[in-house]
Amino acid sequence: MKVVTVERMRAIERQAGDDFGLTSEILMANAGRGIAEIVRGAVGGDLSGMAVLVLVGPGNNGGDGRVAAQHLAEAGAQLGLFVWKDRQLLVAGKEIPVEDDLETLRPVLEQTDVVLDALLGTGHARPLDPLMRQVLALVDAERARRPALVVAAVDLPSGLDADTGAADPGTLRADLTITLAFPKVGMFIFPGAGTVGDLVVGPIGLPEGMAGDVSLEMLDGGLARTLLPARPLESNKGTYGKVMVLAGSPPYPGSAYLAATAAGRAGAGLVTLAVTTEMAAIYAVKLSETTFRLLPPASAPAAERARVLLDGLDGYSSLLVGPGLGQDDATRDVLLAALDGVRTLPDDQRPRLIVDADGLNMLARVESWWERLPPRTVITPHPGEMTRLRGGERVSGGGADRFDVVRDVAARWGTVTILKGACTLIADPAGAMRVYWPPNPALATAGTGDVLAGIVVGLLAQGADPFDAASLAVYLHGRAGLAVSEQLGDAGLLASDLLPEIPVAMRETRAET
Fold this sequence. Notes:
The structure is a single chain. The protein is α/β, with parallel strands linked by helices. It folds into two domains: 6-214, Rossmann fold (3-Layer(aba) Sandwich); 224-511, 3-Layer(aba) Sandwich (UDP-N-acetylmuramoyl-L-alanine:D-glutamate ligase), CATH 3.40.1190.20. Helix content is 38%, strand content 16%. It has 16 helices and 18 strands. It starts with 5 loop residues before the first helix and ends with a helix.
Protein backbone atom coordinates (compact mmCIF):
# COMPACT_ATOMS: atom_id res chain seq x y z
CA MET A 1 0.00 0.00 0.00
CA LYS A 2 1.56 3.29 -1.13
CA VAL A 3 2.00 6.11 1.38
CA VAL A 4 1.44 9.63 0.03
CA THR A 5 1.87 13.28 0.92
CA VAL A 6 -1.03 15.73 0.91
CA GLU A 7 0.18 17.28 -2.34
CA ARG A 8 0.38 13.90 -4.04
CA MET A 9 -3.08 12.91 -2.79
CA ARG A 10 -4.53 16.09 -4.29
CA ALA A 11 -2.78 15.40 -7.58
CA ILE A 12 -4.20 11.86 -7.63
CA GLU A 13 -7.71 13.17 -7.05
CA ARG A 14 -7.30 15.73 -9.86
CA GLN A 15 -6.06 13.01 -12.19
CA ALA A 16 -8.99 10.80 -11.22
CA GLY A 17 -11.35 13.56 -12.31
CA ASP A 18 -9.50 14.53 -15.48
CA ASP A 19 -8.70 11.04 -16.78
CA PHE A 20 -11.52 8.91 -15.38
CA GLY A 21 -14.41 11.26 -14.73
CA LEU A 22 -14.30 10.59 -10.99
CA THR A 23 -15.59 13.89 -9.68
CA SER A 24 -15.18 14.96 -6.07
CA GLU A 25 -18.85 14.09 -5.54
CA ILE A 26 -18.31 10.55 -6.76
CA LEU A 27 -15.19 10.13 -4.64
CA MET A 28 -17.03 11.49 -1.61
CA ALA A 29 -19.93 9.09 -2.17
CA ASN A 30 -17.52 6.17 -2.40
CA ALA A 31 -15.60 7.36 0.66
CA GLY A 32 -18.71 7.72 2.80
CA ARG A 33 -19.93 4.26 1.87
CA GLY A 34 -16.54 2.74 2.66
CA ILE A 35 -16.26 4.57 6.00
CA ALA A 36 -19.66 3.29 7.08
CA GLU A 37 -18.78 -0.30 6.19
CA ILE A 38 -15.52 -0.13 8.10
CA VAL A 39 -17.20 1.36 11.18
CA ARG A 40 -19.87 -1.32 10.96
CA GLY A 41 -17.21 -4.05 10.87
CA ALA A 42 -15.31 -2.48 13.76
CA VAL A 43 -18.33 -2.76 16.08
CA GLY A 44 -19.17 -6.34 15.15
CA GLY A 45 -21.33 -5.85 12.07
CA ASP A 46 -24.63 -4.91 13.73
CA LEU A 47 -25.43 -1.23 14.24
CA SER A 48 -29.06 -1.76 15.24
CA GLY A 49 -29.81 0.43 18.21
CA MET A 50 -26.26 1.77 18.49
CA ALA A 51 -25.92 5.52 18.96
CA VAL A 52 -23.44 7.13 16.57
CA LEU A 53 -22.43 10.79 16.82
CA VAL A 54 -20.74 12.28 13.76
CA LEU A 55 -18.66 15.42 14.25
CA VAL A 56 -19.11 17.20 10.92
CA GLY A 57 -16.47 19.72 9.89
CA PRO A 58 -16.72 22.51 7.32
CA GLY A 59 -14.77 20.93 4.46
CA ASN A 60 -14.55 17.74 2.42
CA ASN A 61 -13.79 15.74 5.54
CA GLY A 62 -17.12 16.82 6.96
CA GLY A 63 -18.76 15.93 3.63
CA ASP A 64 -17.33 12.42 3.86
CA GLY A 65 -18.72 12.24 7.38
CA ARG A 66 -22.19 13.30 6.23
CA VAL A 67 -22.31 10.63 3.55
CA ALA A 68 -21.06 8.02 6.01
CA ALA A 69 -23.78 9.15 8.43
CA GLN A 70 -26.49 8.40 5.85
CA HIS A 71 -25.20 4.87 5.38
CA LEU A 72 -24.85 4.33 9.12
CA ALA A 73 -28.46 5.39 9.62
CA GLU A 74 -29.60 3.02 6.87
CA ALA A 75 -27.76 0.24 8.71
CA GLY A 76 -29.81 0.87 11.82
CA ALA A 77 -27.70 3.32 13.82
CA GLN A 78 -29.36 5.95 15.97
CA LEU A 79 -27.70 8.93 14.38
CA GLY A 80 -26.65 12.29 15.73
CA LEU A 81 -24.70 15.01 13.91
CA PHE A 82 -22.78 17.84 15.47
CA VAL A 83 -22.38 20.39 12.68
CA TRP A 84 -19.40 22.56 13.50
CA LYS A 85 -20.15 25.35 11.03
CA ASP A 86 -23.67 25.91 12.37
CA ARG A 87 -22.88 24.96 15.99
CA GLN A 88 -25.89 22.67 15.91
CA LEU A 89 -26.83 19.19 17.00
CA LEU A 90 -29.14 17.25 14.72
CA VAL A 91 -30.66 14.48 16.80
CA ALA A 92 -33.93 12.59 16.22
CA GLY A 93 -35.13 15.21 13.76
CA LYS A 94 -34.44 18.10 16.12
CA GLU A 95 -32.03 21.00 15.64
CA ILE A 96 -30.40 21.87 18.95
CA PRO A 97 -28.09 24.91 19.23
CA VAL A 98 -24.71 24.26 20.84
CA GLU A 99 -23.38 27.18 22.85
CA ASP A 100 -19.78 27.70 23.86
CA ASP A 101 -20.35 25.91 27.15
CA LEU A 102 -21.19 22.72 25.17
CA GLU A 103 -23.85 21.83 27.72
CA THR A 104 -26.30 20.59 25.07
CA LEU A 105 -23.61 18.31 23.63
CA ARG A 106 -22.81 16.55 26.90
CA PRO A 107 -26.02 14.53 27.39
CA VAL A 108 -25.97 13.35 23.76
CA LEU A 109 -22.36 12.26 24.09
CA GLU A 110 -23.13 10.40 27.30
CA GLN A 111 -25.55 8.18 25.35
CA THR A 112 -23.24 7.64 22.36
CA ASP A 113 -21.56 4.34 21.45
CA VAL A 114 -19.44 5.55 18.51
CA VAL A 115 -18.02 8.99 17.75
CA LEU A 116 -16.96 9.61 14.16
CA ASP A 117 -14.43 12.46 13.98
CA ALA A 118 -14.98 14.12 10.59
CA LEU A 119 -14.06 17.65 11.66
CA LEU A 120 -10.80 18.29 9.79
CA GLY A 121 -8.92 16.42 7.09
CA THR A 122 -5.56 16.48 5.35
CA GLY A 123 -5.95 20.05 4.13
CA HIS A 124 -5.77 21.50 7.65
CA ALA A 125 -2.34 22.19 9.11
CA ARG A 126 -3.17 25.08 11.46
CA PRO A 127 -3.79 25.03 15.22
CA LEU A 128 -7.24 23.85 16.19
CA ASP A 129 -9.91 26.38 17.05
CA PRO A 130 -10.07 26.63 20.87
CA LEU A 131 -13.72 25.60 20.92
CA MET A 132 -12.97 22.63 18.67
CA ARG A 133 -10.34 21.56 21.17
CA GLN A 134 -12.99 21.71 23.87
CA VAL A 135 -15.33 19.52 21.82
CA LEU A 136 -12.61 16.94 21.29
CA ALA A 137 -11.59 17.12 24.95
CA LEU A 138 -15.21 16.46 25.92
CA VAL A 139 -15.19 13.30 23.79
CA ASP A 140 -11.89 12.22 25.31
CA ALA A 141 -13.21 12.73 28.83
CA GLU A 142 -16.30 10.69 28.03
CA ARG A 143 -14.16 7.85 26.69
CA ALA A 144 -12.11 7.96 29.87
CA ARG A 145 -15.35 7.59 31.80
CA ARG A 146 -16.69 4.89 29.46
CA PRO A 147 -13.81 2.98 27.82
CA ALA A 148 -16.29 1.14 25.60
CA LEU A 149 -16.90 4.35 23.64
CA VAL A 150 -15.30 3.96 20.20
CA VAL A 151 -13.67 6.95 18.51
CA ALA A 152 -13.14 6.60 14.77
CA ALA A 153 -11.40 9.27 12.66
CA VAL A 154 -12.18 10.02 9.02
CA ASP A 155 -8.94 10.14 7.00
CA LEU A 156 -6.91 11.22 10.05
CA PRO A 157 -7.50 12.49 13.59
CA SER A 158 -8.44 16.19 13.52
CA GLY A 159 -5.36 18.27 14.34
CA LEU A 160 -2.81 15.82 12.91
CA ASP A 161 -0.59 17.24 10.16
CA ALA A 162 -0.70 14.64 7.40
CA ASP A 163 2.79 15.49 6.12
CA THR A 164 4.86 16.20 9.23
CA GLY A 165 3.21 14.14 11.97
CA ALA A 166 2.84 17.24 14.13
CA ALA A 167 -0.26 17.06 16.32
CA ASP A 168 -2.19 19.90 17.92
CA PRO A 169 -2.40 19.51 21.71
CA GLY A 170 -6.15 19.09 21.28
CA THR A 171 -5.91 16.23 18.78
CA LEU A 172 -8.23 13.42 19.82
CA ARG A 173 -6.54 10.02 19.81
CA ALA A 174 -8.57 7.67 17.63
CA ASP A 175 -9.24 4.04 18.37
CA LEU A 176 -9.59 3.58 14.62
CA THR A 177 -8.44 5.79 11.75
CA ILE A 178 -10.07 5.19 8.37
CA THR A 179 -7.62 6.83 6.00
CA LEU A 180 -8.98 7.38 2.50
CA ALA A 181 -7.36 5.77 -0.57
CA PHE A 182 -3.80 5.78 0.82
CA PRO A 183 -2.11 6.22 4.19
CA LYS A 184 -0.48 9.62 4.67
CA VAL A 185 3.17 10.12 5.61
CA GLY A 186 2.42 11.96 8.86
CA MET A 187 0.64 8.92 10.26
CA PHE A 188 4.00 7.20 10.66
CA ILE A 189 5.76 10.13 12.35
CA PHE A 190 5.53 10.91 16.04
CA PRO A 191 3.82 12.46 17.89
CA GLY A 192 1.03 12.14 15.32
CA ALA A 193 1.51 8.39 14.95
CA GLY A 194 0.47 8.03 18.56
CA THR A 195 -3.01 9.43 17.77
CA VAL A 196 -3.90 7.08 14.91
CA GLY A 197 -4.94 3.88 16.71
CA ASP A 198 -5.80 1.00 14.39
CA LEU A 199 -5.19 2.06 10.79
CA VAL A 200 -7.53 0.91 8.03
CA VAL A 201 -7.51 2.14 4.43
CA GLY A 202 -10.95 3.12 3.14
CA PRO A 203 -11.56 2.79 -0.62
CA ILE A 204 -12.77 5.75 -2.65
CA GLY A 205 -12.99 4.02 -6.03
CA LEU A 206 -9.65 5.01 -7.55
CA PRO A 207 -8.32 2.89 -10.43
CA GLU A 208 -5.35 0.64 -9.67
CA GLY A 209 -1.87 2.04 -10.05
CA MET A 210 -2.58 5.74 -9.58
CA ALA A 211 0.28 6.05 -7.09
CA GLY A 212 2.53 3.60 -8.91
CA ASP A 213 5.57 5.87 -8.96
CA VAL A 214 5.42 6.70 -5.24
CA SER A 215 8.54 5.27 -3.61
CA LEU A 216 7.19 4.83 -0.07
CA GLU A 217 4.82 2.02 0.84
CA MET A 218 3.38 0.59 4.02
CA LEU A 219 4.27 -2.96 4.94
CA ASP A 220 0.95 -4.78 5.16
CA GLY A 221 -0.14 -8.39 4.93
CA GLY A 222 -0.83 -8.21 1.21
CA LEU A 223 2.69 -7.02 0.43
CA ALA A 224 4.30 -9.40 2.92
CA ARG A 225 2.49 -12.37 1.37
CA THR A 226 4.09 -11.65 -2.02
CA LEU A 227 7.55 -11.67 -0.41
CA LEU A 228 7.31 -15.04 1.34
CA PRO A 229 9.73 -17.63 -0.08
CA ALA A 230 8.08 -20.61 -1.75
CA ARG A 231 8.04 -23.95 0.08
CA PRO A 232 7.74 -26.57 -2.70
CA LEU A 233 6.80 -30.13 -1.78
CA GLU A 234 9.78 -31.48 -3.68
CA SER A 235 12.50 -29.94 -1.54
CA ASN A 236 15.19 -30.68 1.01
CA LYS A 237 17.20 -28.64 3.47
CA GLY A 238 19.52 -27.58 0.69
CA THR A 239 16.59 -25.95 -1.08
CA TYR A 240 16.28 -23.40 1.71
CA GLY A 241 19.91 -22.40 2.03
CA LYS A 242 22.64 -22.43 4.65
CA VAL A 243 23.18 -19.63 7.16
CA MET A 244 26.45 -18.73 8.88
CA VAL A 245 26.23 -16.60 12.03
CA LEU A 246 29.26 -14.86 13.54
CA ALA A 247 27.90 -13.65 16.86
CA GLY A 248 28.11 -13.92 20.62
CA SER A 249 30.87 -13.49 23.18
CA PRO A 250 31.26 -14.34 26.87
CA PRO A 251 29.45 -11.17 28.06
CA TYR A 252 26.65 -11.58 25.48
CA PRO A 253 25.97 -15.26 24.82
CA GLY A 254 22.24 -14.77 24.33
CA SER A 255 22.62 -12.75 21.14
CA ALA A 256 23.98 -15.66 19.13
CA TYR A 257 21.31 -18.01 20.47
CA LEU A 258 18.49 -15.62 19.54
CA ALA A 259 19.86 -14.84 16.07
CA ALA A 260 20.67 -18.45 15.15
CA THR A 261 17.32 -19.75 16.38
CA ALA A 262 15.42 -17.00 14.57
CA ALA A 263 17.20 -17.89 11.31
CA GLY A 264 15.98 -21.47 11.65
CA ARG A 265 12.47 -20.37 12.63
CA ALA A 266 12.39 -18.20 9.50
CA GLY A 267 12.83 -21.31 7.36
CA ALA A 268 16.55 -21.62 6.61
CA GLY A 269 17.61 -25.19 5.81
CA LEU A 270 20.75 -25.20 7.98
CA VAL A 271 22.16 -22.75 10.52
CA THR A 272 25.81 -22.75 11.57
CA LEU A 273 27.21 -20.70 14.43
CA ALA A 274 30.85 -19.62 14.14
CA VAL A 275 32.29 -19.55 17.66
CA THR A 276 35.29 -20.71 19.64
CA THR A 277 35.38 -24.22 21.09
CA GLU A 278 34.78 -22.82 24.59
CA MET A 279 31.65 -20.94 23.50
CA ALA A 280 30.38 -23.87 21.42
CA ALA A 281 30.17 -25.96 24.57
CA ILE A 282 27.81 -23.36 26.04
CA TYR A 283 25.61 -23.02 22.96
CA ALA A 284 25.35 -26.76 22.35
CA VAL A 285 23.18 -27.05 25.47
CA LYS A 286 20.39 -24.98 23.88
CA LEU A 287 21.03 -25.13 20.14
CA SER A 288 20.27 -28.75 19.32
CA GLU A 289 19.71 -28.18 15.60
CA THR A 290 22.53 -25.71 15.00
CA THR A 291 25.92 -26.82 13.69
CA PHE A 292 29.18 -25.10 14.61
CA ARG A 293 32.14 -23.65 12.76
CA LEU A 294 34.86 -23.80 15.40
CA LEU A 295 37.09 -20.73 15.40
CA PRO A 296 40.56 -20.36 16.93
CA PRO A 297 40.62 -18.90 20.45
CA ALA A 298 40.31 -15.16 20.98
CA SER A 299 44.07 -14.99 21.58
CA ALA A 300 44.83 -16.16 18.01
CA PRO A 301 45.77 -13.61 15.34
CA ALA A 302 42.81 -11.88 13.73
CA ALA A 303 43.82 -12.99 10.24
CA GLU A 304 43.86 -16.63 11.32
CA ARG A 305 40.43 -16.41 12.95
CA ALA A 306 38.95 -14.67 9.92
CA ARG A 307 40.50 -17.21 7.55
CA VAL A 308 38.90 -20.14 9.36
CA LEU A 309 35.54 -18.41 9.07
CA LEU A 310 36.02 -17.62 5.38
CA ASP A 311 37.17 -21.15 4.57
CA GLY A 312 33.94 -22.43 6.06
CA LEU A 313 31.66 -20.28 3.88
CA ASP A 314 31.71 -22.52 0.83
CA GLY A 315 28.11 -23.38 -0.03
CA TYR A 316 26.59 -20.90 2.43
CA SER A 317 23.87 -18.61 1.14
CA SER A 318 23.94 -15.92 3.79
CA LEU A 319 26.11 -14.56 6.59
CA LEU A 320 25.17 -12.56 9.68
CA VAL A 321 27.87 -10.79 11.64
CA GLY A 322 27.62 -8.68 14.75
CA PRO A 323 25.08 -9.59 17.43
CA GLY A 324 26.79 -9.73 20.83
CA LEU A 325 30.31 -9.91 19.38
CA GLY A 326 31.73 -7.24 21.67
CA GLN A 327 33.70 -4.26 20.41
CA ASP A 328 37.33 -4.73 21.44
CA ASP A 329 40.09 -4.00 18.92
CA ALA A 330 40.94 -7.67 18.35
CA THR A 331 37.33 -8.48 17.47
CA ARG A 332 37.16 -5.46 15.17
CA ASP A 333 40.24 -6.72 13.31
CA VAL A 334 38.58 -10.12 12.84
CA LEU A 335 35.42 -8.44 11.56
CA LEU A 336 37.26 -6.27 9.05
CA ALA A 337 39.37 -9.16 7.78
CA ALA A 338 36.24 -11.27 7.36
CA LEU A 339 34.40 -8.48 5.53
CA ASP A 340 37.35 -7.88 3.22
CA GLY A 341 37.44 -11.57 2.42
CA VAL A 342 33.70 -11.77 1.73
CA ARG A 343 33.78 -8.70 -0.48
CA THR A 344 36.47 -10.18 -2.71
CA LEU A 345 34.65 -13.48 -3.28
CA PRO A 346 33.19 -14.04 -6.78
CA ASP A 347 29.56 -12.94 -7.01
CA ASP A 348 28.28 -16.48 -7.40
CA GLN A 349 30.17 -17.64 -4.30
CA ARG A 350 29.52 -14.69 -2.01
CA PRO A 351 26.90 -15.19 0.70
CA ARG A 352 24.39 -12.42 1.15
CA LEU A 353 25.53 -10.33 4.11
CA ILE A 354 23.82 -8.65 7.05
CA VAL A 355 25.68 -6.59 9.64
CA ASP A 356 23.98 -5.91 12.97
CA ALA A 357 24.58 -4.53 16.48
CA ASP A 358 28.25 -4.69 17.56
CA GLY A 359 29.24 -5.21 13.94
CA LEU A 360 27.83 -1.77 13.15
CA ASN A 361 29.37 -0.15 16.20
CA MET A 362 32.80 -1.45 15.23
CA LEU A 363 32.38 -0.30 11.63
CA ALA A 364 31.44 3.17 12.86
CA ARG A 365 35.04 3.55 14.08
CA VAL A 366 36.43 2.84 10.60
CA GLU A 367 36.87 5.57 8.00
CA SER A 368 34.69 5.04 4.90
CA TRP A 369 33.44 1.83 6.48
CA TRP A 370 30.79 1.23 3.81
CA GLU A 371 33.52 0.55 1.27
CA ARG A 372 34.31 -2.65 3.18
CA LEU A 373 30.85 -4.09 2.40
CA PRO A 374 29.58 -5.90 -0.69
CA PRO A 375 26.82 -4.10 -2.60
CA ARG A 376 23.35 -4.24 -0.99
CA THR A 377 24.56 -5.55 2.32
CA VAL A 378 21.72 -5.33 4.85
CA ILE A 379 22.44 -3.17 7.90
CA THR A 380 20.10 -2.84 10.88
CA PRO A 381 20.91 0.23 13.00
CA HIS A 382 18.74 1.61 15.76
CA PRO A 383 18.87 5.43 16.13
CA GLY A 384 21.95 5.38 18.36
CA GLU A 385 23.87 3.12 15.99
CA MET A 386 22.77 5.22 13.01
CA THR A 387 24.07 8.32 14.77
CA ARG A 388 27.45 6.66 15.22
CA LEU A 389 27.54 5.39 11.64
CA ARG A 390 26.89 8.97 10.47
CA GLY A 391 29.81 10.34 12.48
CA GLY A 392 27.68 11.77 15.28
CA GLU A 393 24.84 13.25 13.23
CA ARG A 394 21.81 12.43 15.34
CA VAL A 395 18.64 10.80 14.09
CA SER A 396 15.40 10.59 16.02
CA GLY A 397 13.53 7.50 17.10
CA GLY A 398 10.26 8.54 15.50
CA GLY A 399 10.52 11.99 13.90
CA ALA A 400 10.18 13.20 10.33
CA ASP A 401 13.97 13.33 9.85
CA ARG A 402 14.13 9.53 9.72
CA PHE A 403 12.67 9.34 6.22
CA ASP A 404 15.27 11.61 4.64
CA VAL A 405 18.11 10.06 6.65
CA VAL A 406 17.40 6.44 5.74
CA ARG A 407 16.81 7.24 2.08
CA ASP A 408 20.03 9.26 1.89
CA VAL A 409 22.30 6.77 3.64
CA ALA A 410 20.99 3.76 1.74
CA ALA A 411 21.85 5.48 -1.53
CA ARG A 412 25.17 6.85 -0.32
CA TRP A 413 26.37 3.66 1.32
CA GLY A 414 24.85 1.23 -1.17
CA THR A 415 23.22 -0.71 1.66
CA VAL A 416 19.73 -2.01 2.25
CA THR A 417 19.10 -0.17 5.50
CA ILE A 418 16.68 -1.06 8.28
CA LEU A 419 16.33 1.96 10.55
CA LYS A 420 14.71 0.51 13.63
CA GLY A 421 12.24 2.46 15.70
CA ALA A 422 8.58 2.64 16.61
CA CYS A 423 7.71 2.73 12.89
CA THR A 424 10.70 0.91 11.40
CA LEU A 425 11.86 2.04 7.95
CA ILE A 426 13.51 -0.08 5.27
CA ALA A 427 15.31 1.62 2.38
CA ASP A 428 16.88 0.26 -0.80
CA PRO A 429 19.86 2.02 -2.47
CA ALA A 430 17.71 2.49 -5.57
CA GLY A 431 15.28 4.72 -3.63
CA ALA A 432 12.39 2.44 -2.68
CA MET A 433 11.31 2.61 0.95
CA ARG A 434 8.87 0.76 3.20
CA VAL A 435 7.46 1.58 6.63
CA TYR A 436 6.12 -0.84 9.22
CA TRP A 437 2.87 -0.36 11.11
CA PRO A 438 1.75 -0.60 13.91
CA PRO A 439 4.26 0.46 16.56
CA ASN A 440 4.47 -1.90 19.53
CA PRO A 441 6.16 -0.81 22.79
CA ALA A 442 6.37 -4.44 23.91
CA LEU A 443 9.27 -4.91 21.45
CA ALA A 444 11.37 -2.29 23.23
CA THR A 445 13.43 -4.84 25.12
CA ALA A 446 16.90 -6.37 24.87
CA GLY A 447 17.46 -9.05 22.26
CA THR A 448 14.57 -8.31 19.91
CA GLY A 449 17.02 -6.81 17.43
CA ASP A 450 19.01 -10.06 17.44
CA VAL A 451 15.82 -11.92 16.55
CA LEU A 452 15.14 -9.50 13.69
CA ALA A 453 18.66 -9.96 12.32
CA GLY A 454 18.21 -13.72 12.49
CA ILE A 455 14.98 -13.56 10.50
CA VAL A 456 16.67 -11.44 7.85
CA VAL A 457 19.60 -13.82 7.40
CA GLY A 458 17.23 -16.81 7.33
CA LEU A 459 15.21 -15.23 4.51
CA LEU A 460 18.37 -14.23 2.64
CA ALA A 461 19.47 -17.88 2.75
CA GLN A 462 16.26 -18.85 0.97
CA GLY A 463 17.11 -16.59 -1.96
CA ALA A 464 15.07 -13.53 -1.06
CA ASP A 465 16.23 -10.22 -2.49
CA PRO A 466 17.92 -8.20 0.28
CA PHE A 467 15.30 -5.41 0.24
CA ASP A 468 12.48 -7.93 0.30
CA ALA A 469 14.15 -10.05 2.96
CA ALA A 470 14.65 -7.01 5.17
CA SER A 471 11.05 -5.88 4.62
CA LEU A 472 9.50 -9.28 5.24
CA ALA A 473 11.65 -9.80 8.34
CA VAL A 474 10.44 -6.52 9.82
CA TYR A 475 6.83 -7.50 9.11
CA LEU A 476 7.14 -11.00 10.60
CA HIS A 477 9.05 -9.68 13.59
CA GLY A 478 6.35 -7.10 14.23
CA ARG A 479 3.55 -9.58 13.78
CA ALA A 480 5.20 -12.03 16.17
CA GLY A 481 5.51 -9.19 18.66
CA LEU A 482 1.82 -8.38 18.35
CA ALA A 483 0.92 -12.02 18.96
CA VAL A 484 2.96 -12.09 22.17
CA SER A 485 1.80 -8.69 23.41
CA GLU A 486 -1.83 -9.70 22.90
CA GLN A 487 -1.19 -12.35 25.56
CA LEU A 488 1.12 -10.38 27.86
CA GLY A 489 0.37 -6.70 27.29
CA ASP A 490 2.79 -3.87 26.53
CA ALA A 491 5.44 -4.91 29.08
CA GLY A 492 7.16 -8.16 29.95
CA LEU A 493 7.86 -9.55 26.48
CA LEU A 494 11.22 -11.33 26.27
CA ALA A 495 13.04 -11.65 22.98
CA SER A 496 12.90 -15.44 23.18
CA ASP A 497 9.08 -15.22 23.31
CA LEU A 498 9.18 -14.16 19.66
CA LEU A 499 10.94 -17.28 18.39
CA PRO A 500 8.04 -19.77 18.25
CA GLU A 501 5.78 -17.05 16.85
CA ILE A 502 7.91 -16.50 13.72
CA PRO A 503 6.72 -19.58 11.77
CA VAL A 504 3.17 -18.93 13.00
CA ALA A 505 3.35 -15.43 11.55
CA MET A 506 4.61 -16.86 8.25
CA ARG A 507 1.82 -19.43 8.14
CA GLU A 508 -0.89 -16.89 8.91
CA THR A 509 0.49 -14.39 6.41
CA ARG A 510 0.56 -17.04 3.70
CA ALA A 511 -3.02 -18.10 4.47
CA GLU A 512 -4.62 -14.66 4.50
CA THR A 513 -6.52 -13.37 1.49
